[in-house]
Amino acid sequence: MISFFICLLILIASYFTYGKLVDKTFGPDDRETPAVAINDGVDYVVMPAWKMFLVQLLNIAGLGPIFGALQGALWGPVVFLWITFGTVFAGGVHDYFSGMLSERNEGKSIAEVTGIYLGHTMQQIMRFFSVILLIMVGTVFAVGPAGLIVELLVKRGVSGTFASTTVWLAIIFAYYFIATFISIDKIIGRIYPIFGICLIIMAIGVAIGLPLNGYHTPELWSHFYNMHPAGTPIWSFMFITVACGAVSGFHATQSPLMARCLKSEKQGRFVFYGAMVAEGIIALIWASAGCSLYKVTGGLNVGLATALQAGQSAAIYDVCIKTMGSAGVILAMIGVVVCPITSGDTAFRSARLTLSDWIGISQKRAVDRLKLCIPCFAVGGFLGFGQSFGLFSYQVIWRYFSFSNQALAMLTLWCGASFLARERKNFWIAAVPAAFMSAVTSTYFVMAPECLGLIPSLANNTMVAYPVGIIFAVFCLTLFMRHVRRIKRENGAVQSA
Hints:
Elements: H1 2-16, H2 18-26, H3 34-37, H4 49-61, H5 64-72, H6 78-104, H7 110-118, H8 120-155, H9 165-181, H10 188-212, H11 234-241, H12 250-259, H13 268-293, H14 302-309, H15 312-359, H16 366-388, H17 394-422, H18 428-447, H19 462-496
Helix pairs in contact: 1-6, 1-13, 2-6, 2-13, 4-10, 4-12, 4-13, 4-15, 5-13, 6-12, 6-13, 6-17, 6-18, 7-8, 7-17, 8-9, 8-15, 8-16, 8-17, 9-15, 9-16, 10-13, 10-15, 11-18, 12-15, 15-16, 17-18, 17-19, 18-19
Family: Belongs to the peptide transporter carbon starvation (CstA) (TC 2.A.114) family.
Membrane topology: Multi-pass membrane protein
Subcellular location: Cell membrane
């Protein structure tokens, strides 16, 4: 487990080193925050830093760093590198700037912030991506928990009405509607910190349970190759599959929720970068479990692939049983069920706020909140119950979510780089990961089966997709440098005047 512990130490140390550098580059000060200036008692509410950290962690976690990490473990221990360095240099930067730029701009949603720094066209793209992504996330994080609850009940011998995925899906959607509609401090601010602690305890239980039960995590240096049973290329499928836990555009839609609750800008590193590091650690633990628990055949993770074929509910339940036994599985399953639910409701809440910023409808009055909640849940319900009745595949929804998610992360990082360029600061800390994610998303788009890979000649065709990815990343970086030069000319003109 030496590889695992090295990666774990890097993640912990990054908060005190690179996270501090990112924070210093941004330059938090003592200006009045939106939570203090606006304070509408609904979305703008001052909360303590420790509570915001736990709420932020729950908001961004969901099934992503658990199921995504297990899926990423199909490629073997090489996924440790993406989780670790993705979190430090991309995910932490992404989450910090999405939160702090929102805070600097009256707590606006990420789509509106993008419009400020990248222009109207990017604003419109981000509005579309954000709303679609949020509703998809809310749906995925309703269907997933419903399946997990039923899995737990069936294992315990429960049958009948309450062993139905459809029933639990209806219950979860009803809760989502209430949590999306009422003030953020009524449910989210009060009980989410407790669930955050459960999530952390669950991850610790899995981590400790691996060696105590005789499971050995394979070392990175002895398994530095593609272990995926289907031979799926590492680049860029692994970087899309493992989003939460490395870098995730969904987080950019969640960070403004806590940006509206900061009492001081100086809380930003703890709340945003810190929560991302915590999520990276959770993802690392679950990836380690995926690499450790299942039989490797012919150098490939065939055992893990077989476990995942039974569904994410069964796979997660299996990990919990094998690492903690029957005594710890209840706590673990509560954590795994609560995680996505607490991300799902804030996804729909963020969708409401994104639409309110877009359309210009104040959310202080209940009737105005209803105007946006109802259409959001109508679409989410159609997707969710459609999957429940076999009209849609959960895996298909997840794949489209994953690609949209990383495309949103790419745009958010370019937004952060633009802000730093305007402020005459080191924009490379955001521009480099932005260019990297540009290559990731464009490569995936060309060869993925749900994108251009629908064309047989392009499906998994690395000879075409890899060069396209490199060219697109260079193109984006070239456009950005032109943008930087234009900013410098404008700043020079202002100084001359």
